[in-house]
């Protein structure tokens, strides 16, 4: 019994260490001051907090969010369900310097093509952030934490990433 707890503790430390502030974007959506309300667009990257320690991310599509669930199912859920059983009460949208959602049609297409598929979920090696990045880039890149996702998004869209409140 001690080994699984030790493993969980080590995993939490790795995730926390990967969530340090990035020069290329806010490390956590709640960290940004002066937030604006932004209407998500298809293919937009969205996020919410989980118990003040982790972040969960997904892709906005037609008023729903496509996410990688902890059991490995890629599914579409309502914004209300996206927040259910999480500490965050707000969904945030990844935006550029002008507070426009960063996205393109390819992201939405890739996310919709993955709906109802299963993959081997792993908190560290194959999580929601890796799923989101695969929808954005079309690549399966090793990525663990939210700050890594921010850095990759900033590089991909050639802008600093700002997380703004989703107007739903």
SSE sequence, one letter per element: HEEEEEHEHHHE
Distance between the termini: 43 Å
Number of helices: 5
Mean pLDDT: 83
Form type: globular
The main β sheet shows up as: 7 strands, mixed
Q: Give the total of beta strands.
A: 7
Structural class: alpha+beta
Poorly predicted runs of 5 or more residues: 1-31
Strand adjacency order, main sheet: 1-7-6-2-3-4-5
Radius of gyration: 15 Å
User: Helix proportion of residues, in percent?
Assistant: 25-40%
Strand content is 15-25%
Q: Can you offer a commentary on this structure?
A:
The chain is α+β, with helices and mostly antiparallel strands and 168 residues long. It has helices spanning 2-18, 79-83, 105-114, 128-137, 146-157; strands spanning 37-38, 45-50, 54-61, 64-68, 74-77, 92-95, 162-166. The chain has a seven-stranded mixed β-sheet with strand order 1-7-6-2-3-4-5. The longest helix is centred in the N-terminal third of the chain and has 17 residues, at 2-18. Mean pLDDT is 83; it is low at 1-31.
What would you say about this model in short?
The chain has helices spanning 2-18, 79-83, 105-114, 128-137, 146-157, and strands at residues 37-38, 45-50, 54-61, 64-68, 74-77, 92-95, 162-166. With 168 residues, it is an alpha+beta fold.
């Amino acid at each position: 019994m001690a080994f699984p707890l030790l493993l969980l503790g080590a995993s939490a430390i790795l995730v926390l260490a990967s969530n340090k502030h990035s020069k290329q974007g806010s490390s956590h959506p709640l960290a940004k001051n002066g937030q604006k309300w932004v209407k998500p667009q298809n293919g937009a990257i969205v996020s919410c907090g989980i118990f003040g320690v982790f972040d969960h991310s997904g892709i906005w599509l037609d008023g729903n969010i496509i996410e990688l669930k902890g059991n490995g199912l890629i599914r579409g859920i309502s914004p209300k369900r996206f927040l259910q059983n999480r500490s965050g009460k707000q969904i945030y949208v990844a935006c550029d310097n002008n507070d426009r959602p960063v996205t393109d049609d390819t992201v939405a297409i890739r996310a919709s093509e993955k709906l109802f598929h299963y993959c081997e979920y792993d908190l560290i090696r194959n999580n929601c952030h890796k799923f989101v990045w695969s929808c954005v880039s079309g690549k399966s890149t090793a990525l663990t934490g939210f700050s890594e996702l921010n850095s990759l998004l900033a590089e991909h869209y050639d802008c600093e990433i700002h997380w703004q409140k989703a107007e739903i």
